[in-house]
Design a protein that fits this description.
By secondary structure, this protein is α/β, with parallel strands linked by helices. It is built from twelve helices and eight strands. The radius of gyration is 21 Å and the shape is globular.
């Protein structure tokens, strides 16, 4: 898992790490688009949409061959969805609504093989290894797997320090919208309740020597001290860019006097 190894080193260095969360749409070519744009990772979101499994596996394979980190967010922090997500071949998981050490144990059972867990590997994820010996799985996949548990409610918030310190946790993640809703501050990210919760999560990550994953507006996150950034949803970013292009064309049109226009100004 060279992509996971490289990403962990970059996180440990304190450098800015950026990526995207593909929720509304996903196709394998999106991996290359995000990679070519200079990002460090892509998360394929299966929590809110069930993207075609073959397409997700193909996206993971592109990342594997290009040494680019592709993660999957399974629909729930439950054994079967986690195991099936691993079978698709990602180099890490963003796991929604992690609430306790018991949840972390369940995650461990789903992502590690016996004797450390209960996973039964299969599917395209088998392509990570050159043979099926346990030591090969452990050294190639399990030792480098990136696990990002999301704190998304009060229960998880109370267990944030234990979740952050678990050996499986690479970085402590936040689900800011769901967390704000559970705190009664939906959607008021600057509310005192939300800011206190984010401070507690950051303190938990710092105490465990871990980074914190956060989604939002990049410059704002950097100003707040985050380094492990998710810059949003690719198709939402496309929509925003299309609106920007449209607005800039109309603004240019308004600034040009009709009498000064000529046919030479236009591209046929």
């Amino acid at each position: 898992m060279e992509a996971a190894i490289h990403l962990k080193r970059k996180l440990d260095s304190g450098a800015i790490v950026t990526g995207m969360l593909a929720t509304n749409h996903f196709w394998p070519g999106m991996v290359e688009l995000v990679m070519d744009a200079g990002h460090d990772y892509l998360i394929i979101d299966l929590e809110h949409f069930t993207h075609d499994a073959e397409s997700v596996a193909a996206g993971c394979a592109i990342g594997r061959r290009a040494n680019f980190a592709v993660f999957v967010r399974p629909p729930a922090a439950e054994y079967v969805p986690l195991r099936l997500a691993m079978d698709l071949g990602p180099c890490g998981l963003l796991i929604p609504c992690v609430e306790s050490l018991e949840t972390m144990q369940l995650i461990q059972d789903a992502v590690w093989m016996k004797p450390r867990g209960r996973r039964r590997p299969g599917g395209p994820g088998n392509s990570w290894v050159k043979d099926f010996h346990y030591e090969t799985w452990k050294q190639t996949v399990e030792d480098h797997l990136i696990i990002l548990p999301q704190i998304e409610n009060r229960i998880g918030l109370r267990s944030a320090r234990e979740i952050a310190s678990h050996p499986l946790t690479t970085a402590l993640a936040v689900g800011p919208y769901d967390l704000s809703a559970d705190l009664g501050a939906c959607w008021h990210p600057d509310s005192p309740e939300m800011q206190q919760a984010l401070g507690e999560i950051r303190a938990a990550a710092d105490a465990a020597g871990k980074r914190q994953w956060m989604i939002g507006h990049g410059p704002d996150l950097v100003r707040r001290g985050y380094t492990f950034l998710c810059l949003g949803e690719p198709t939402a970013a496309l929509g925003a860019k299309l609106a920007e292009l449209n607005q800039s064309a109309h603004q240019a049109s308004e600034s040009v006097d009709e009498g000064d226009r000529s046919r030479d100004d236009f591209i046929p």
